[in-house]
Amino acid sequence: MSGSAALLATLPGYSQLRRSQHWDCRKWSAYREKRLRETLAAAARIPFYTDRFGAAPHAASFTEIPVLRRSDVGGLAASVRGLHSPEARLESDLSSGSTGMPARFIFDRSHQRGRFAARARYLLESGWTPLHRSAWVIYLPNGTPDARIVGHRLLLGTRFLSVFTDMEEQVAWLRRLDPHSLYTLPSNLDALVEQLSRSSLPSLRCILTGGEVVEDALRRKVRSVFGLEIADNYGTTEAFLAWRCPRGRYHVNAEHVLVEIVDEDGAPARPGQLGRVLVTTLQNRLMPLVRYEIGDYAEPSEDGCCCGRTLPVIGHIAGRAVQLFRFADGRLVSPWDLMVRVRSDGAFRQFQIVQRTFDQFVFRHVSDAPLPAEERDRLAREFATVLRAEVRVDFERVEAIPRTPTGKYMTVLSDLSGTVAPGST
């Protein structure tokens, strides 16, 4: 689908989403049941799922369907391609594989229309407009569906710069443009805020982010410097999952996806409990994803939102499994408290925490001078306090923390991602 066609096809979908986000429980229940029934019927026509299901699945037994792992996606895609002639051009995109396992996903037009419409809702209701000056400092490979629509000439005020551009050049470019809105990765925004001020971007009214979890420390910093709130979204190559409304709650794009949050045993996680995120696409009949484990952890929430939208709400989003610390007793620990304590020191231009084993960590840092012994001891105590475990911390001073191929800074990495601790199930 061309960029122009995709933009035009987005408009009716966006208009519908403006209405559906205020549906009552009865309408939502009927919609989910209908879409889930259609999705399972489409999946049952694909040999990969036929073998997996054993029989045509029903919505009533949906939670009994096996979880789709990332390692299964290649087989699913091959099975879908096998239903079409080798010359058929199927719309697809490659997920970056920040978990270490890249995968290619295939989409049909209805999925892309729904995805773009959901993004339009997020952008427009967060304060972005296509006519005002808008700076996008991101990474979008040429030829991808997102690049064709987001970079279209009809979005008159939109300007792009690669996130790989030198930071000084990014700052100079933003000062010249003086945008009304800025969209970038949270880690890149963190670096930009260090060198920008409200007076250097006087027209800035809207800050949007995606691709990474936004830390509370960054929200406070942006609030202090610009007097603005970050409007972030929770999206992946596979689907556009959720977005943070102006009242601060993450709303699921329930017209587009069904999101489950389950514990390590596959049971629904309790509100406030960290669980694995499973996604079922509701608009892709070509290659539907059914109970797909995307590799993220989040907390469910039973609360609504005072904004008036009736879309389901997600609690705290912890991010990739690769960003969670794992321990021998089966505990999963979010890194954010530790990161806040490290950032409060102010001695590091950049840092990265890597978990090597259950009790061994590496702290990489970019700083003007080596860490004195007393500072290393203090940080080691912070690790022990936050992690509630005796751990060894090795310190490495480096010239720079490299970005991933998609332009992200991985502040936390765990070599134990996917490891099952001794004695756990």
CATH class descriptor name of the domain at 325-414: Alpha Beta
Strand proportion: 15-25%
Largest sheet: 11 strands, mixed
Number of strands: 19
**Tally the helices: what do you get?**
11
**Structural class per helix/strand content?**
alpha/beta
CATH architecture of the domain at 325-414: 2-Layer Sandwich
Percent of residues in helices = 25-40%
**Whole-number mean pLDDT:** 86
Outline: globular
- Looking across the biggest beta sheet, what order are the strands in? 4-3-5-6-7-8-9-13-12-11-10
In brief:
This protein has 425 residues and is of the alpha/beta class. 30% of the residues lie in helices and 23% in strands. Mean pLDDT is 86; it is low at 419-425.
Short descriptors:
425 residues, GMP Synthetase, Chain A, domain 3, alpha/beta, 19 strands, 30% helix
Describe this structure in words.
With 425 residues, the protein is α/β, with parallel strands linked by helices. It has a domain of 90 residues: 2-Layer Sandwich (GMP Synthetase, Chain A, domain 3). It has eleven helices and 19 strands. The strands form four sheets. An eleven-stranded mixed sheet has the order 4-3-5-6-7-8-9-13-12-11-10, sandwiched between helices. The protein has a four-stranded mixed sheet with strand order 18-17-16-19, with helices on one face. The protein is globular, with a radius of gyration of 22 Å. The C terminus is likely disordered.
Question: Which helices and strands occur, and which strands form pairs?
Answer:
Elements: H1 3-20, H2 25-43, H3 47-53, H4 73-81, E1 92-95, E2 103-106, H5 109-125, E3 134-138, H6 145-150, E4 158-162, H7 167-177, E5 181-184, H8 186-193, E6 206-209, H9 216-226, E7 230-235, E8 240-244, E9 250-252, E10 257-262, E11 275-281, E12 292-300, E13 313-320, E14 325-326, E15 332-333, H10 336-343, E16 350-357, E17 360-366, H11 373-387, E18 392-397, E19 412-414
Parallel strand pairs: 3-4, 3-5, 5-6, 6-7, 16-19, 17-18
Antiparallel strand pairs: 1-2, 7-8, 8-9, 9-13, 10-11, 11-12, 12-13, 14-15, 16-17
Helix pairs in contact: 1-5, 8-9, 10-11
